[in-house]
């Protein structure tokens, strides 16, 4: 599959890799003429085009046209390919290099990304969030078509969070490493963004129509529940993570009860307490001796 | 250019140290660090005469490989002695993990000095020395993972040809890295730098290498070299993607990087 563009068409080695994604079998010289509209290096183009083996001078012209895959899309493909190497190499430039190799690229292509593996993790998180959205969308369709019952809110939230956390299972060994990288200052804006939009998504599909100050509380609460459950999952060694799901069930139940209290300010404070409690559970499970105890 | 380097070859390293007050070592370290090569990488170092980049590359890859092996051994806790010793032997023989560096230079003298240095420092495997011209490399297409040219590209007559050759010999996904003196963007530093370059360096050249003219040439060629943005445009024109540069010491030196995608 990879080397279908054989040597005689070497002139377009430049775009060969980028083009593969679109699977278009255009005539090389026909498509190269599209690149003639490039503003760069126009001096050399006309004479060089007919000579096949000579490297093409064509510049960035074809880069952004819709027939060609963009750099970004290629980067996404590399990152997706790299995911399968994460269990072995962790969230590192090595995994990205291996991923690049499976696409037929040199391992040096991993140099396009940050050396701490941040982009790989963010890519993964974003992929998971997209999968979750699709899942929730499908469920919603089934409900609308009358093929399924609408779940009560607490069960809906429980199932959504569980579904999302289950996506971590193949990578669970290396996930703590990923979490710590996501907490690095230069990653916090992106990781926070992804987290909040995922939470928003879940509430959206849960049928949350409120636009009052309840909105903030709900999001804070669910974010707290999600984060703490994630931490508990890191420590969990029970079969199929049943302890984690039980923890999740309890936290959601608490959150529901909390929603019934009149005092909204208090409930936001409670969300914070929830978070601390979850962290405390995690810490005590880890058995590390913390200062002060 | 050839004659300049013929006379300069033997004293090249000493002059580098004194001219840049030893900072050139840091610059070269940064270059290899930025490359972050994994074991199995094939590097072409052009105009790399005395082997500085090549040796650093080998050191880096060796330490990465060691870490890899250590990690593998940790996972091997459950294997039998037989299996462990077999895998150990197989890994031992590949201390570089199939990484290789080809040092290419137009100048025989520079290569000679490089080979001697390699012997002296104990580098034996993974190194090749090839005589060649950057504008017309004696290599096939799509061969190398990384192409580096450290302080060499300003000596090339037709920079665009050298860039094209770089593009040609790189594999898809391969990386182009160029370390070169560049434009200082800080006006104060710029004046000090000019003063140093024109007053001090040729004098050092005379005192240490007995060659005023070569170093005068050096300083002038640095001034004539295109600044960062212009070089970036030239690299893009040849077909590299994701071209970027990193200024070191506010522009005294810059590392340009591009990918063949």
Automatic annotation (TrEMBL), chain A:
Pathway annotation: Cofactor biosynthesis; ubiquinone biosynthesis
Record keyword Transcription present: no
Family of this protein: Belongs to the COQ9 family.
Domain Ubiquinone biosynthesis protein COQ9 HTH: 71-101
Protein name (Swiss-Prot/TrEMBL): Ubiquinone biosynthesis protein
One Pfam entry name: COQ9
Organism: Thinocorus orbignyianus
Primary location recorded for the protein, binned into one broad class: mitochondrion
UniProtKB/TrEMBL annotation, chain B:
Cross-referenced SUPFAM superfamilies: S-adenosyl-L-methionine-dependent methyltransferases
GO process terms (BP): methylation
Keywords: Methyltransferase, S-adenosyl-L-methionine, Transferase, Ubiquinone biosynthesis
Annotated InterPro entries: SAM-dependent_MTases_sf, UbiE/COQ5_MeTrFase, UbiE/COQ5_MeTrFase_CS
Pfam families: Ubie_methyltran
Alphabetical list of HAMAP family matching this protein: MenG_UbiE_methyltr
Assembly with partners or alone: Component of a multi-subunit COQ enzyme complex, composed of at least COQ3, COQ4, COQ5, COQ6, COQ7 and COQ9. Interacts with PYURF; the interaction is direct, stabilizes COQ5 protein and associates PYURF with COQ enzyme complex.
Function description: Methyltransferase required for the conversion of 2-decaprenyl-6-methoxy-1,4-benzoquinol (DDMQH2) to 2-decaprenyl-3-methyl-6-methoxy-1,4-benzoquinol (DMQH2).
Protein's recorded name: COQ5 protein
Organism name: Thinocorus orbignyianus
Gene designation: Coq5
């Amino acid at each position: 599959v990879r080397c279908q563009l054989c040597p005689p068409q070497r002139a377009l080695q430049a775009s060969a890799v980028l083009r593969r994604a679109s699977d278009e079998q255009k005539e090389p010289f026909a498509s190269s003429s599209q690149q003639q509209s490039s503003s760069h290096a126009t001096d050399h183009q006309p004479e060089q085009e007919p000579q096949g083996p000579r490297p093409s001078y064509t510049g960035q012209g074809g880069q952004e046209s819709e027939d060609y895959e963009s750099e970004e899309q290629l980067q996404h493909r590399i990152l997706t390919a790299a995911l399968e190497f994460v269990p072995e190499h962790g969230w590192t430039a090595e995994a990205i290099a291996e991923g690049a190799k499976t696409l037929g690229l040199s391992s040096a292509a991993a140099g396009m990304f940050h050396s701490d593996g941040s982009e790989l993790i963010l890519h993964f998180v974003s992929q998971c969030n997209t999968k979750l959205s699709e899942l929730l969308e499908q469920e919603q369709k089934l409900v609308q078509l009358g093929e399924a019952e609408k779940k009560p809110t607490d069960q809906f939230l429980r199932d959504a969070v569980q579904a999302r956390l289950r996506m971590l299972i193949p990578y669970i060994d290396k996930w703590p490493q990923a979490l710590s990288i996501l907490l690095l200052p230069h990653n916090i804006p992106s990781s926070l963004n992804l987290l909040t939009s995922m939470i928003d998504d879940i509430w959206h599909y849960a049928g949350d129509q409120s636009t009052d100050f309840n909105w903030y509380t709900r999001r804070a609460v669910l974010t707290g529940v999600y984060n703490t459950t994630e931490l508990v999952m890191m420590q969990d060694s029970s079969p199929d993570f049943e302890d984690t799901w039980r923890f999740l069930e309890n936290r959601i139940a608490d959150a529901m009860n909390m929603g019934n209290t009149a005092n909204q300010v208090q409930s936001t404070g409670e969300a914070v307490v929830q978070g601390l409690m979850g962290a405390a559970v995690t810490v005590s499970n880890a058995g590390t001796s913390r200062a002060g105890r | 250019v050839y004659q300049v380097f013929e006379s300069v070859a033997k004293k090249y390293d000493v002059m580098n140290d004194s001219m840049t007050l030893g900072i050139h070592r840091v610059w070269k370290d940064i270059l290899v660090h930025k490359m972050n090569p994994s074991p199995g990488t094939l590097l072409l170092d052009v105009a790399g005469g005395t082997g500085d980049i090549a040796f650093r590359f080998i050191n880096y890859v060796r330490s990465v490989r060691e870490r890899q092996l250590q990690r593998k051994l940790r996972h091997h806790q459950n294997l039998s002695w037989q299996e462990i010793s077999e895998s150990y032997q197989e890994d031992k023989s590949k201390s570089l993990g199939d990484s290789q560096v080809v040092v290419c230079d137009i100048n025989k003298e520079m290569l000679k000095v490089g080979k001697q240095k390699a012997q002296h420092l104990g580098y034996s495997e993974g190194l090749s020395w090839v005589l060649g011209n950057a504008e017309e490399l004696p290599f096939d297409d799509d061969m190398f993972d990384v192409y580096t040219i450290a302080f060499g590209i300003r000596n090339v007559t037709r920079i665009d040809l050298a860039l094209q050759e770089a593009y040609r010999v790189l594999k898809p996904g391969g990386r182009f890295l160029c370390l070169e003196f560049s434009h200082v963007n800080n006006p104060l530093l710029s004046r000090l730098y000019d003063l140093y370059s024109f007053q001090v360096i040729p004098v050092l050249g005379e005192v240490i290498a007995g060659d005023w003219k070569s170093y005068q040439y050096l300083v002038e060629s640095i001034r004539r070299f295109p600044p960062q943005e212009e070089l970036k445009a030239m690299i893009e024109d040849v077909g590299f993607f994701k071209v970027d540069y990193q200024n070191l010491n506010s522009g005294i030196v810059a590392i340009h990087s591009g990918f063949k995608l």
